[in-house]
Design goal:
Order of helices and strands: EEEHEHHEHEEEEEHEHHEHHHEE
Oligomer: single chain
Structural class: alpha/beta
Strand order of the largest sheet: 1-2-3-4-5-6
Shape: globular
Helix content: 25-40%
Distance between the termini: 32 Å
Strand content: 15-25%
Bound molecules: zinc ion
Largest sheet: 6 strands, mixed
Length: 300
């Protein structure tokens, strides 16, 4: 179903998928993966470009798994970089907490951008017309890109085949959840035939995927603690994949060293160290996402 001018490089949870579009207006890349794997990102993108230059890199939103290759790609190609307009103040200030960097145990090479994109803007990429559409929720500044003619939606982390990116709890949570709902409603109203998500394979069963997202949203709206536990587990899993392994004996010290865990614990849970570690890692082990081997925790 994909036009020949568009290639999807499906990656993993640490690295967002890359979308490469080649056309009259130049060669465009959407999202650049995580900094740890930038060398692989560069080679995968080069392979698709097959000797052609990259002109333009665009981020759906500014999280470390989508913008982690920006600096390296800019150095290698000299390409233009555009980000969603409302991310600009965070990138200008390199706001560690708002960008979920060391505050959440994540890393990203700092980069500079050339300009910003707003909802409603039209582009010609891969000889197709694309509209930027606001996609707040997981990231309040996020954009997605829709091509009316083909029905293809590049959704970033606003909509996956099984859910959507984490939504933060806290005072603004109902606002963020309402934004998530509005984004899903926007998607339901578009004539989407194929979704290229930020993570996972492209998919066409839009109705059932929306259904799963509504259900997750309903559950988050009813139970703030579910959101808290979900964020803690997703953040820990991301960091475990990034580090590849963590000594069991270092777990408590690791959790204490990342501000997000201490903040969430103080604000929502008030657990002792052992109970907090069990809530995060115990649950991940019980559902098979994490395993223990020779004194180490490993992503399963
Ligand atoms: Zn992502």
């Amino acid at each position: 179903m994909l036009p020949s001018s568009l290639k999807v490089i499906v990656r993993d949870w640490l690295n967002a998928n890359h979308i490469v579009m080649m056309g009259r207006e130049g060669n465009v890349l959407i999202d650049s993966g995580y900094c740890r794997d930038k060398a692989l990102t560069l080679s995968r993108v080069d392979e698709v470009l097959a000797g052609q230059p990259l002109h333009w890199l665009i981020n759906t939103h500014c999280h470390s798994d989508h913008m982690g290759g920006n600096a390296a790609i800019r150095t290698a190609s000299g390409c233009r970089i555009s980000i969603p307009r409302d991310e600009a103040p965070l990138i200008d200030a390199w706001d560690d907490r708002a960008l979920w960097l060391s505050y959440a145990g994540q890393r990203c090479d700092r980069f500079s951008f050339d300009d910003t994109i707003v909802s409603g803007q039209m582009f010609e990429w891969g000889n197709l017309q694309w509209r930027a559409i606001s996609a707040p929720g997981h990231d309040m500044a996020a954009l997605m890109f829709f091509c009316e003619e083909t029905g293809i939606l590049i959704s970033g982390d606003a909509f996956w085949q099984h859910g959507f990116g984490i939504v933060l709890p806290g005072a603004d949570r109902m606002h963020r959840l309402a934004a998530t709902r509005a984004t899903l409603e926007t998607i339901a109203d578009l004539r989407v035939r194929l979704v290229i998500p930020g993570h996972g394979d492209p998919f066409t069963d839009i109705g059932p995927a929306l259904e799963r997202s509504w259900q997750r949203l309903d559950s988050f709206e009813r139970h703030e603690l579910r959101m808290v536990r979900h964020v803690l587990k997703v953040m820990f899993m991301f960091s475990l994949i990034d580090r590849r392994r963590l000594a069991v004996g270092e777990l408590d010290a690791y959790l204490a060293s990342v501000p997000l865990y201490a903040d969430f614990n103080q604000q929502y849970l008030q657990l002792d160290t052992v109970a907090l570690a069990d809530l995060i890692v115990g649950d991940l082990e019980r559902n098979g996402a994490v395993r223990r081997q020779d004194g180490f925790l490993l992503p399963a």
